[in-house]
User: Fold these one by one.
Assistant:
Number 1:
Amino acid sequence: MITRFVLPRLGWAVVTILLATLLVFGAMQALPGDAATQILGQNATPEAVATLRRQLGLDQAPVERFVSWLGHALTGNFGTSLVSGQPVGPEVGRARLNTSFLAGITIVVGFSLALVLGLLAGLFRDRWVDSTISTLALVGMSIPEFIVATLLVLAFSITIPIFPAVVVAGQNATIAELLPAMTLPSLSLMFVASAYIIRMMRTSVIDVMETDFVHTARLKGISTGRLVFKHVVPSAILPTLNVVAMNIAWLIGGVVVVESIFNYPGMGSLMIKSVQSRDLPTILLITVVGALTFVVCNLLADLAATLLNPRLRYPRNAK
Amino acid sequence: MSAAMTEELEIDVKNLAIAYMAGTRRVNVLENISLQLRTGEILGLVGESGSGKSTMAGVLLASLRTSSFVASGTVQLGGVDVFKLKGRELREFRASHVALVPQNAGAALTPTMRIGEQLQEAFRLDVAASASRESRDARSIELLDLVRLPNAQAALQKYPHQFSGGQQQRIGIAMALAARPRLLVLDEPTTGLDVVTQAAILDTLARLHQELGMAMVMVSHDLGVIDKMCTHIAVLRQGKVVEAGETRKVLGNPQHPYTQGLLASVPRVSVPGIPPSLDDAAIDAFERGTPMPPQEHALHERVAPQDTASVLAIRGLTVDYNRRPKPGSAPTVLDVDLDVHAGEIVALVGESGSGKSTIANVVAGLQKRQSGELTLGAGTELAPAVAHRTKAVRRAVQIIFQNADTSLNPRRTVRDAITRPLRLFHVKGLSAEDALVQVGLPPNFTERLPGQLSGGQRQRVGIARAVSAGPELVLADEIVSALDVSVQSSILRLMDRLARNSNIGFLFITHDLAVVRSVADRVVVLYLGRIVEEGAVAEIFGTVSHPYTRLLLASVIEVGDDHSAMVPPGQDEVPSGPPAQGCPFASRCPLVMDVCKTTTPPVIQASSTHSIRCHAPIEKLRGD
Amino acid sequence: MTASTVVVERLQGTRGFWPSLRRVARSILRSKPATLGFALVILHILLALLAPLIAPGNPTENNAAAVLQLPGGPYPLGTDTLGRDILSRTLYGGQYALAVSFASTALAVLLGTVIAGLAAFYGGWIDQVITRLVDSVLAVPAILAMLVLVTVFGSGPQVIVLAVVVVYTGGVTRVVRAAAMDVMPKDFIIAARARGEGVFYILSREVFPNILDVVLVEFAMRASWVVLLVSSLSFLGFGANPPTPDWGLMVAENRSLMAVVPLATLAPIVFLATLIVGLNLAADGLAKSLGVDRMKEILG
């Protein structure tokens, strides 16, 4: 099963990541001006720019540069930042770690809560429980993260000063130092990301409740608890997994705004900085990481769906 | 379990009316229903679509669709008013007293739970059986053995999708019986199953009834099934009971014109000719009390055309879905020869998996073939793909589909559907209205959408679309299988008329032998993609038959039959694919010999037009 | 927001454009949330169209003398740090938001539908290639793609439109392809193929009328996401440039002064939130009355 299932998908995953990286690389080539002009500024002499270019290796043909980057990347060497001169790998790695923690809290707390809320909304369809939850979900979906963040800061940092509004620890802070500062950012993220999961789970639960097999199970006279947890939930969760995977992938993007507001030293902030400064190696690695996350999440969702779906686990052999 | 000493009725329905609100209007689903049933009796609820029979089945479990409610009357089961039960009482009642075997058993089994666990849920109120793991398993296996499911022990751990349709139906029955209900309700228990599987399941149900003695209610549109299984019958039409009583009496001597018309409109295997169709308007008139217009009673017997030109000639058709042949596998369709002549109706008979649809798709140019020549009319070669065929060829070969819901574009009007092929094939002088009249529809239907037509009307539009362009050959793929029986005969008469008047050759694909008897000229019997028998219709239904044809004929259940003959156990298990060599029927044939498993059977000519492919000598193929 | 107040009505019952429109409109009006949604959207459109007539002041002209005024007099909502009237800026902000969002959504939906139709029709390797390409584009984090594109091409509204199309066409393709794949195996398509009909006919006359409802709901949902995305971009400084009155930009400019002049931040927030909520409610209502399966919508 592993070979038939996992390997082809892994193969496609690699192709997808490569293509994505290529696309971004190609786009960056269209930029007027590059890192050299950014660093030296508007008034640099052409000679100075050319020298810096040669030093940074920017004078090679694009195809050569991509291939050589690719070659180095496969050995784990992602080059040095055109801005800071530091190796890109560790820099992105640190940022990644910080963002992962933020995302991690959001996923574990937020998504679990969302699944439960979605289940409740579906079970108590059209009653006040459902109305409340659905309204909250609708609001969550409709308000951009920067507004949620801004309002949260207004509420919990300015009006009632509990949580810090801005992270001051800086680039190399440890996780422990960052923890209290993660509350508001992750709340902002949770509010928005969970909304889709709640709605999806609700729809899924409603659909499953109307199937023939749930109807039959109800006619067997089993208790409601058993009906919900053994008959409804396993089937309802399957389609929701896809949305969960997509939301995890979306977090990569949503995190940008939140990190920017709270000055959180994560991938989002790094992304903005590196695009502004045309720091190609960093951008490429961020793309790789982003695409990798997206692809891995989809793969895991597929895998989970297969494991949970008996139809896929045991292909039909009439016996 | 034995016949109760009390006089208590198992079912006592008094003046029941069920309705729902559509906006501010009240729509009645069931009106004025009164029924009674005693322990050990079996009630058959007969009706066509829209009769309310499925609602009635749900009523017996106090289960209504969400917007429906009880407008009046009571339903008492074993003395208990079921609609007064709520919550815990209702659940316990459902768990112990009454059980439902739903129409599509496969969809009624939870796909994420193992069979064993689902069965055990059903008898969890039986304390003794649920006490320990061993007792639970033992009881589950006992139930599966009861319904003759093979390999019960292994089956416990499997999931629903790992079983075939017939097996899922048996599991559904086992689940319903698990709690030893006093009343078993079955909603169309065999619809959608192959005729042989259907016969086997009904035998099982009859045996169960004998052993367990509970009361049963069987909902069906099939009068033959009701005649075989039920002691009592109630005929439903548009939510009302038009006639009820003992089955033999009602079906032997029906009083109400609807029952009479229904019985008359069912085609029979033993009677050649297309039955008259049911006249709804006349029945409505009767119900209102106004005099009924005279009814048509005669069968229309078809006369086969003689010596007409060939319209389709297939030689040596082989279709294989596997790109690279695997060892032990065989092509889906092998070496098929087939002829259709102008004005002729050739029936291609087979159950699901026989390859009949594959053959139709190849003729239509929608499916690739591995080998074989297809010739149209006077010698035009049919190219394998539609794209390589000329417009004239495409015009000459048309298709009519089974499912009227999907054969017409729901967003396009009737006029659009009909005029498109007319324009495409440059047919002049024929308007959409003319085409509709040709198929017996009013010309003002042109502006309607498919959603505004009944099933029979949609099928006629599909026919109009196919024949208005003037084809030579029409592929009719199960065109009456999805229609109510009372409507079927009018479509069959239409097909007969078109074949006669327009000289169209029909390749009529079907699994229903009675329909074949009523309308076909010649029959080709297909099993697992290989022809096993072909001949004129009277010969196929005659005394000399291929063992498979004989099995099919024996499995047909009709009103007035002697229902005592049973299908031998194991006969209903269809193999998943044809064998690599030898006769395809070898695994199920009662006359099987060693040579059948290794060598392709030779052709036996029972007459100049009747051929059978079998190793057995012809004497053995003669029936009684 | 609750589920069941809109009765599902199928368009099949009515033929012709205007009767169908009336039927859909009637079923939407039967649901309070859906009506609210459409009302909000229409309100925003009206306000944006009439902005030049009803705005009290000039949205982009700095006025050093009138900095940080409290609401009252010529400035109904007060002024911001550069002396500009908040109400005027908010009203004109609607023009930018609606024009950019609707234009880019319409383009993305159009392009996505065409690609999806081709993928569903041809199937086989063409479908595979298209799906893989779409997955690759979707794999690039949306914000990153937009940041890159904006940095490359500058930040005018045309660039934003292009960026949105690049980022969202893939999602539309996925959803519409799924809907088209449901229609393709149906018998009336087989009948058309057997007649030898071509790609263009089958896609436009047979398939499209049956997926129109999915496309419409996609449009409504995507429009809400696009408004959100565009405002977030502006907030980050990658979208509209000052002095353009863009809601996201306004929030970014004024949020540090929330304690002093809250309306400068709250006015754009309220407008933005009500527009997106309205679009979402309208999308829901539309989905209900057209009978579209919202699960597939969200999955896209």
Number 2:
Amino acid sequence: MIFWRSIILAFSVTSTCVVIAVPIALLITKFDLKYKRIWEVVTLLPLVIPSYVGAYLLMSAMGPKGLFQQILHPIFGIERMPSLYGFAGALITLSLLNFPYVLLTIRGTINQLDPAQEESSRLLGLNRLQTLIKVTLPQLRPAILSGGLLVSLYTLSDFGAVSLMRYKTFTWSIYNQYGASFDMNAAALLSVSLCVLATLVVYFESFIRGNKKYFNTSMGTLRAPRVMKLGLWQIPSQIFCLLLTIFSLGIPTSILCYWLFRGLTSGESIINVFESAGNSLILASLTSICVIAVVLPVSYLVVRYGGILATIVEKSCFVGFALPSIAVSLSLVFLGSRIGYPIYQSMGLLVFACALLYLPTGLGSVRSSMLHISPKLEESSKTLGKSSLSTYTKITLPLLRPSILMGIAIVFLVTMKELPAVLMLSPLDFHTLTTDIWTYSSEAFFAKAAVPSLTLLLVSSIPLTLAMLKSGLRG
Amino acid sequence: MVKRLLHCKNISKKYGSITAISKLSLSINNGEILSILGPSGCGKTTLLRLIAGLDSPDEGYITLNDRILVNGATWVPPHQREVGMVFQEFALFPHMTVQENIEFGLSKLNAKHKAFRVKTVLDLTRINDLKQRFPSELSGGQQQRVALARTLSTQPELLLMDEPFSNLDAGLRSLVREEVKTILRDSDTATIFVTHDREEAFSISDKVAIMLDGTIHQVDPPDKIYFWPNTKDVATLSGGCDFISGKIENDFALTSIGKIPIRVIGEFRNGTEVEIAIRPNDLAMTPNPSGNSRVIRKEFRGDDTLFWVESPSGEIICCKHKIHTTLFAGLRIDLSPEKFVKFNVFPK
């Protein structure tokens, strides 16, 4: 049954991501891991690979007659690789590509923990490992949960990977009903069910997290947390990071390069991606700008003033969080086709859809760092003769800059990757990198899909890397 | 030519059902340093925030140099008030150097004037060597001076300081306090300064305002607050204080430890039951085997020793004495007023 298939996949992917992300986050923030700066950036980069690209790469490499089979055939005489289609393929792809979400939320929290707490624990007689398990990890629980929430929502709403892996979930059925049979009613029914499911996940997360405030957000100690020595564990840790990077980043990019190379040598014409890349850039930039334009006033309003209005505004911004992109797109298609010109199939509607979908992503990042700016700083600026506006631009904005940059980078990146909304809402003849990749890879023209895929990876990883370096170790 | 600078009249402020300030009136003159002394939670910080314009009162009005800052109809925003504030946490801008922090409030000046002002306050607060540093690279005392310099650079008509020394350790505190006092005198800036530490309040200010439960109980010079407290609460807040009961008889009060001279004469009729405030330095202790009081506990403090003495009627009085070897717990003693000391009496 579709319902259970979706749930089981979401649960498995989320657990796998947590298992991968927690050790990495701890290694980077709590231990003297070598080449920390590199791992810091590299472990986030899998985010730039869209799930359907990941899926098609896995298929082309590990499929029954895939790349590996072709390499292994002359040596071992293997005729067919075990099938990766279905659950296993979807699980591997989605886990390898989505674990950085958990990493991001954990790292956002871990540096706000008061180092004095861990020191007290050591003084109370617990050793390092016990301290990690009994003091540090429990405080990371909310972060792990909210990262897990992100992953499970992305898994529920994922369309590309599951459909390429032929694992039938809600999104797959919705698109099928809409695309194949144009059965709007069935598609709508499925969408509503999917939204209910996503809302249940959000509710479940807040239920187990409760409303407790786990960590101390006092501005008091600005001491950097003490870094623990890895000692003999340095080498296994490096190997762990390296293996993860090879699987989540190395293999996908090498296969893309291989396909590109093979396409080139077999004389296939390189398709022109300039126009699609330009369209993707425009869409992603417009969306990021819109999101930040909403996020800045909303986060200020919510954090500084609170009250009923602020709560309503905030909650409505998080609506997109629980709404899978395919459902949002579908409803906007309904809306657009009812109203028709000038909305239907307009760029504006597409940007609106993407902004609605990724507003929570940007808001989450900026709001949490807004919470850490002491209102006293703004007040002292006012007593020094600065108006509210000038205080905001001179004090608040500069202090928010790392989180704004990170927010922009992530919104930019997820919009670059966005597929269903672009497929369903884009103006006629509007191609983006994602639609190109989708078109070629669903028809198994892997070599042709390689160029737009590599371009996509390259273009989206630049802002992420820059934002990561700018925001420094504070994550 | 004493001129009234700030005037608060009947201001009140409620947060939900909690009354922070009720019907409070307070004035401060040009060049004066006034401290507001009160226990935590008495509304001191709220009062400063109302004066600075970071909050607005529910009723009453505030004027500065006869200009209305806030009343029912007018509200001048904080940046137009010419009121500077130094926060308890200093609130230095972490993304700016010391120099940038100080220049922050001077953007309206031209480069030459700005440089002059910065130089002046850097010299005044003696932080010239620190100007290229970031706040995270400064010690507590240095941050305190930067915060002060930043506020003074704008030449506010009135300076507000909210528990400015509470984030400094005890050794540094008295040192910085002296420095700040000198800086404030040199710059002739009228200052309202909030604290819960009476030693701090007495040593730094021209006048002390005792605040309790959202209202001011007494405003007077430190010595007057100490020696002439208006109420029992003021007496308690302005120094160590025990109360014993007694009866008025002309210039004296009759108590269980004997007849003691009272300060204000003619306030009570003879025979009135009163309470008498005893400061730790007020009574002399004389060992006497047939004395009617008894030492019950002693605590060595270094410069002096504290003794808890039980009077014949069972009242516990705290006394200070320099000598500690000849007096000990269990000893019977006589208590008598020190020379020239007169006692404050309050109605029962």
Number 3:
Amino acid sequence: MSVAIPEGARVVFGRPELLVDRVNSYCPGCGHGVVHRLIAEVLGDLGLGERTIAVAPVGCAVFAYDYLALDFAEAPHGRAPAVATGIRRVRPDAFVLTYQGDGDLAAIGTGEIVHAAARGELLTAVFVNNGIYGMTGGQMAPTTLIGQRTTSSPGGREASFHGYPVPMTEMLAVLPGVAYAARGSVADAASIGRTKQYLRRACEVQLEGRGFAIVEVISNCPVGWGMTPQQSIERLKEVVALQYRPGVIVDRTKEPAATPGAGPAEPGAPAAAER
Amino acid sequence: MTVSHAPVRQEARGAAHPAPSRRGRRVLMKGNEAIAEAAIRAGCDGYFGYPITPQAELLEWMARRMPEEGRPFVQAESELGAINMALGAAATGARVLVSSSSPGISLMAEAMSYMAASEVPVVLVNVMRGGPGLGSIGPSQSDYFQATKGHGHGDYRVPVLAPASIGEAMALTADAFELAERYRTPVMILTDGILGQAMEPVELTFREPPRIPQDWALGGAAGRPPRVVRSLHLKPEDLEVHNRHLQAKFAAIAEREVRFATEHLDDADLVVVAYGTAARVARSAITRARADGLRAGLLRPISLWPFPAEAVRDAARRARGILVVELSAGQMVEDVQLAVEGSVPVFFEGRTGGMVPTPGEVVGALRRLWATTAPGSEEASR
């Protein structure tokens, strides 16, 4: 939909070029739309649209390729970091971005994300954490908080029965291959603005060849949480953000470039530059 | 009448020990290494693998050679990782090889379904070992069902090429890339622990198939609309249209890409149907049987899918019986039975678990088949 701009008027807010103008499949109030928009803005600002190959997950965001005007590969459930690794290795000039939810990244895809990060793959990973399996009807995810009711933890998540929530981004941040890890939120305008900065930095880190970059975005799932959009935003701010605290978790780009892998190399081992 | 391909005639003269030619030097190589080098010379742009016996030499060859060529090699975190890296790389139009052995292939089954559905050309080598489960590391052909009837879920087919010598494995590696790209499909090369790890003199002759334009591949939406490589078609109407497209492609492959070789078939009363290592055993058995006066011949499927059913049916018309030899409890034998539709008796001889039938065992089976089908016997009078 295009609107004629009156003479003398100035556009202060428009649809990013990379965000497709169509009705999306997300539920009212869902945070995916905000994250999509931020990605479209950042890639547009950096002029990366024409060289980006993105990887869509399994889950609610499987249709990301319908909403972002980018080349997209579809990954089997959890495998986006492996698919992206293959793309990045054979197309070193491409900019590669993965988009995954918490069921995809933190449960079935744990192995793939950990090893892509450990290898320091030059990828930008977007990890949308809403603490639930949205598409399949609101089941418990690895990120579901203690006490949270879901369709598969109807009495609320109990540590002794269901185990503890998995802080994926903090876990990944300990790996030397991870150049940048941050957590944003879609709770309000200020946190959305900061999330955009994190996303931009995570893209620049790939362009600079510094290593793996991940931005977790804590988000809401009004339908899965059984709440109105407004209530879900309140919960995101007052409950979720206290458990998954937004901010930069690690930024190794401020340190001098070091060989990922820590510790001394084997005698006679090639230096990182020779890889 | 099915037309067998050019390499087949050479094979019929005994390609295991080809005459030296000016084209290439002859060297001793393991099958795993030979396939790896053949893939590199065929223009393989990326290799992704995970260690498993009896395939590890292929991964190790690639670990050394791909960086020498300045091409990507990744030892993945798992077979799931390896095959999905291949999916991503091939979705950009790169020529990609993956290899594994039976238990690893089971893990790759998920992505095989995705690649068939989203029409991503990848060549996958299965160096089969004894199963089921963790099984053994001995040679086996017990993944025939898995390879030819589908690995993952859904209606799809994947071309499967089965070499019987290391030289043929090298030629089929280049052919596999060509088939994969021509039809936009995964292609499997099915070998086993013997073909993978035994050494054989091979002629270093390589072929790089020509590149064909890939107007579907991902590379960034510069100056064109965005492309998506996907398998999801949520509306049943849409998926059915896509499936009809896939089925039409599989029908075209079945029509055009049947490959097989024959030896001593013209006067054969008894036809042995065997592929890969089993065909090597059968060849020895046929030589012995002929010395004993039994006119036996070999029909060796090279493409296991599409299966050379017409050739088998044709051979059965002139024969008294068929003997299928496999390193399995009997899998391809079902396709042979389907092909001949009960017109002649079909016997089976096989060993499992990493054991290999001896030529003597196969000769014994040929004698039983001969006796059972002799005029006046119970089988022959039916």
Number 4:
Amino acid sequence: MSANIVVKDLSFYYNQQRVLTSINLRVEANKILGIMGPANSGKTTLLRVFNRMCDLIPNIRIEGEVSLNGENILRPDINVDKLRKRVGMVFAKPVPLPRSIFANLTYGPRLHGIKDKKRLEELVERSLRLAQLWDEVKDRLNESAMKLSGGQQQRLCIARTLAMEPEVILLDEPTYGLDPISTSKIEQALQSLKKNYTIVLVSNNTWQVARVSDNVAFLLMGELVEYGSTHEIFTVPKDKRTNDYVSGRFG
Amino acid sequence: MATRINPIVSQRIVKAQLWSLTGFTIGILFFIIFFISIKGLPQLSIEFLTSNPVDMGRSGGIFATIISTVYLVFVALAIAIPLGVGAAIYLTEYTRETRVTHIIRFGTECLAGIPSIILGLFGFAFFVMSLRLGWSILSGGMTMSIMLLPTIIRTSEESIKAVPYELREVSFSLGVSRWQTVTRVVLPGALPGIVTGIILSIGRCIGETAVIIFTAGSSLRLPESFLDSGRTMAVHFYILAREGISMSSAYGTGAVLIISILLINLTAYYLTRYFLKKYATFR
């Protein structure tokens, strides 16, 4: 179960100031799209449009269309809670809820109506395995999630999103501030996840984008400079600015 | 030539001064507790606590006044907690800072500044007379709840705001609605602060006299329902001392009052610590 996202002429305004300028983009199903770009290029904003987390920011205006499997998700009457169940999100800073590992994973599913204990246990195990955390925590599921290390916490957050059985997973710099080993575990997890999910990864780390993405979008000052396969972007970019950015000759 | 004071000496002097100021404050507290205890504790006995006043309180115990106090606190809290916590949730979670929320906040601050005697008069005019509830525990409790609202709103708001925003964000991102987020994530985190606010309000309820004389009356009978008039411990103390009925019973009541307020504050302290600890194990 996975989905594609089509972005058509998307512009985003915050306090009358344009943050994203007519973005056109296609997130393909069962692929990883890497979004890269310097700070303030609008990466996170774009990501937060995909699950309407941008609604939490006051004084915004959105133009254009974003459709998930053909359904426009920017319509005002769309049920954002259902949308966010389908389009999960992992934040830069791992934020476990102040409860046990098990309860962290079942928090979402329970509130979406899954009560059966057996089913919840299956979900927990499956999600933790997918996030490559199962072996490390299987004996202490009832311990506080706050006791996990930073890298483990981030994988817990990925597992928590997976437990919702989403179609799309959005990751906003998921390895920010993590050590190389934790980072590579998360990257491995992402590689195996794309079989069943559509993934959008925002990263400041150009090499991470090169390592894990199938397609890459390069944003600069709210504009989509270039979009193509990872191979194209990193070997034969069409735009000079992309070339400068990926070869580290930027700014 | 003016002699300059050695910095070490001045440091010592200032330290001694500050210490004595602090000591003075604590001293007053201990003096009051000591004074009431000396005069009041000898009056206390199981019988004093469990029998009803006889002959206007010249003899007998204070059972009826204890029950009236408990009823009154119950009514006041039953009204003030849902209203206050609800208002705090609305102000913090459901609105953005606008002119309207500023006005609401300013309003609650003003409510906190109203002298209790004025509130008592209002309660008398509105609940006792207009709504024809008479002098009753219900009128008294409702008036008291108005007095408690600002404290409960303020403390609840502060502790709700102290719950990290990221937790809400995570909850929303999992497709959990705002109300579910409030009940599952925000309120459990804010509970210690909210409970502290509530317990401090109980203390204020127990100690209040002006409001209660106007609204709940001063009947010495054991109240049988919330529509009966009742005399709380603080009012009983006031009347016994003021009318010179029985100073020894007055001090006995005073001792019970002080001990119960002390106990409530201690409970508040330990309950808060318990909740914090429980929450902290998940930190």
